[in-house]
Amino acid sequence: MTSRSPRLGYLLVVAAAVLFGVNAGVSRIPLRSGTPTDTFTSVRITAALAVLVLVAVAVDRAALRPPRGRSLLLVVGLGLVGVTGVQWTYNVAINRLPLGIALLLEYLGPVLVVLWVRFVRSEPVAPRMWPALGLAVLGLAVVSRIWSGLEFDGLGVAMALLAAVCFATYFLLGERGVDADSPLQVIVWSFAAATVVMNLVQPVWTADALGADASALGRFDEVVVPAWAAMGWVVVLGTVAPFFLLLVALRMLSATIVSVVAMLEPVVAALVGWGWFRETLTPLQILGMAMVLSGVVLAQTSRRSEPAPLPPPT
């Protein structure tokens, strides 16, 4: 991992979190037009792969060469766990648990990243990272209003916790992968692995509902758009762009920092729900957002300074 341009790294993670948060709203359009969740996931991943291949052909054809050895194992693991796994487990969780609880459990992923780095890799973690995590998780609990729908479902809780594991795995494997290969090569081949798996589960040609018109929902309920156009947004701006931005950021910042800053996503999603879908946003939730932001700022300041280089030998 390189420490160059940490400020750019922060900007990339924030941009990815904003795109993911907005995508939570846009995704409702094709999903509510009649497209099943498995079909939606297959189309999203397969179309994203097609876009990434076109980008690689235009920008860097070397990214189309498959990685070898350890790098190949990393990108396959990233595709199966960090791409397919996190989406599938989260979709199951939100179908069996209140959305706030599912979201909170998934965003335990950054906690797992820090624990892995500290106790498995035995790498030092700045002391202030711990209160930063606690503040961000507590803020998410407030934003999600978990007290409004506490229901226990064993399978739902298990899937939400697996989503957290997959979420953490994306950052940890992504950090290792971009050390050896370019971010474009890593994301192309991780999405290739994910595409194979999802099309075995649910082939993309079952997406008949995407040819119909759909409501833009919420405040734009009377606006009719093609479902495929909303799906195009999901693929390009809700998948390709944010996943790639996170991988590029992992070349500039550690997985611990990137995963905590990414916790801005549910804050953005809550704002989208309020502005687009007329969902309630209480003063207490605004306080929760401020807590998440404070945790993110605290995490940013926990980055250890690189030691000054030794003078050249005389």
UniProtKB/TrEMBL annotation:
Keywords: Membrane, Transmembrane, Transmembrane helix. Its main location: membrane. The keyword Transmembrane helix applies. The keyword Membrane applies. Residues 8-144, 155-298 form the EamA domain. GO terms for cellular component: membrane. The chain crosses the membrane at residues 40-59, 71-90, 96-117, 129-148, 154-174, 186-205, 225-250, 257-277, 283-299. It is found in: Membrane. It is a multi-pass membrane protein. Gene3D superfamilies: 1.10.3730.20. Belongs to the EamA transporter family. PANTHER family: EAMA DOMAIN-CONTAINING PROTEIN (PTHR32322:SF2), INNER MEMBRANE TRANSPORTER (PTHR32322). This is Membrane protein. It comes from Aeromicrobium marinum DSM 15272.
